[in-house]
């Protein structure tokens, strides 16, 4: 599996998994210069609106290590925002695996909390999870 990685991503890495709704992100942190690839594309093209890229980089900015790691991500499922939140959680978890002393700082910033909200299942007799069929009095 390491043979398919570019030369800058060879060697030891720290791993973290992030999830949000149906999105899953597998994140690898390598010692490097701050490059980030998501699904073999540069992060700036994959996460097009700048606020999504800022959201993903928030854990690294919080601890002051933005340009210390190269990041390789495999993201699947969900939409762009869900994938961005999943990547953010994966980065935070990988940082904690690397250095346990960062846990308090990342927890205080809200970067280690998985968002549990997901789509509620449809119930029988209803049109959606809670939407009842229209009632006609006459």
From TrEMBL:
Ribosomal protein found in the keyword field: yes
PROSITE patterns to which the protein is assigned, alphabetical: RIBOSOMAL_S9
Organism for this UniProt entry: candidate division Kazan bacterium RBG_13_50_9
Protein encoded by which gene: rpsI
Pfam families the record matches: Ribosomal_S9
Cellular component, GO, one term: cytosolic small ribosomal subunit
GO terms, biological process: translation
Domain of life: Bacteria
Keywords: Ribonucleoprotein, Ribosomal protein
Biased composition (Basic residues): 119-138
PANTHER family: RIBOSOMAL PROTEIN S9 (PTHR21569), SMALL RIBOSOMAL SUBUNIT PROTEIN US9M (PTHR21569:SF1)
InterPro entries: Ribosomal_Su5_D2-typ_SF (IPR020568), Ribosomal_uS9 (IPR000754), Ribosomal_uS9_bac/plastid (IPR023035), Ribosomal_uS9_CS (IPR020574), Ribsml_uS5_D2-typ_fold_subgr (IPR014721)
Similarity comment text for this entry: Belongs to the universal ribosomal protein uS9 family.
Gene Ontology MF term list: RNA binding; structural constituent of ribosome
Protein name as it appears in the record: Small ribosomal subunit protein uS9
Region (Disordered): 109-138
Gene3D superfamilies, per database record: 3.30.230.10
């Amino acid at each position: 599996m390491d043979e398919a990685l570019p030369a800058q991503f060879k060697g030891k890495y720290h791993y973290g998994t992030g999830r949000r709704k149906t999105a899953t992100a597998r994140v690898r942190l390598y010692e490097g210069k701050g490059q980030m690839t998501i699904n073999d594309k540069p992060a700036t093209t994959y996460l097009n609106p700048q606020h999504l890229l800022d959201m993903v980089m928030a854990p690294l900015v919080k601890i002051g290590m933005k340009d210390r790691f190269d990041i390789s991500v495999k993201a699947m499922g969900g939409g762009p925002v869900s994938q961005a939140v999943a990547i953010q959680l994966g980065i935070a978890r990988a940082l904690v695996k690397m250095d346990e002393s960062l846990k308090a700082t990342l927890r205080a910033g809200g970067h280690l909390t998985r968002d549990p909200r997901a789509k509620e299942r449809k119930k029988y007799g209803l049109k959606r999870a809670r939407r009842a069929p229209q009632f006609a009095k006459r």
